[in-house]
Task: structure prediction
Amino acid sequence: MKIAVIGAGAMGSLFGAYLAKAGAAVTVVDVWPEHVAAIRGQGLVLSEAAGDEVVRLDAALGTGGMEPVDLVILFVKSAATQAAATDAAALLRPGGRVLTLQNGLGNAEVIAEIVGAERVLAGTTAQGATLLGPGRVRHGGRGETHIGRLSGEVDAFCHEVAALLTNAGLPTVVEPDVRSLIWGKLIINTGINALTALLRLRNGQLAELAETRQLLALAVEEAVQVARAAGVRLPYENPLDKVLAVAVATGQNQSSMLQDVLRGSPTEIAVINGAIVREGERLGVATPVNRTLTLLVQALEKNLFPS
Result:
């Protein structure tokens, strides 16, 4: 199976590295010239608890001129989803699929409008990673990846992708209910990302402080109430315990939102806590904590990136 990973930030670099280590034909695509040049020149430095490893893999600044692929994995920020999906549509072989493991709500639907819902795989991952600089990524936490089809029954292609990722060292489970997966990850991100970004904390620190545990619990409870009002079946029994467990499991990791703030990049607050607020408004569920977190991060963005 020939693979392109569009969006070689922390998670895209991590997945690309593991697939390459397993011998997969994979190319990572990104718009950061220094990052792409470093991967091409020295390889991708994968930093793990046991030490650093240099992984050789293909890297490109864009999809132009690339050979057709069977699978495109999207790890771009939500604002770039439409453009990345358009690139993916032009890159896919007949019968090929797009897998989104992006954060937030709505990405899979945007991709489906461009490539067709039947060609979209969606899911979540509990892997954690931090981009340390051009050509360097740290594996900050391990966990399962769950994938399924946006439209239609789970099929052989979906199982083939899961087996490919699992054999590469990224344990992956096929699930029939994609909506449950996406909302399950959304609630985890709702509890972790904004707080880590605002307070400059690593994930595990949220579970260590009484004040952050309380804030996290309040944000998660609102998100759970919105999910219930939307008729969503969550993929775990106790949402608060799950979010805290993920925070601990990825304890040394910087959330993607914290990495964005530290890097001076726009965040995905609008499709995470902001999505909870919008869905709450639509369904008549009050979300004052998530509204406050959203406004605080948006204010922080305007301070960091004045127009």
In short: The first helix runs from residue 10 to 21. The mean pLDDT is 94.
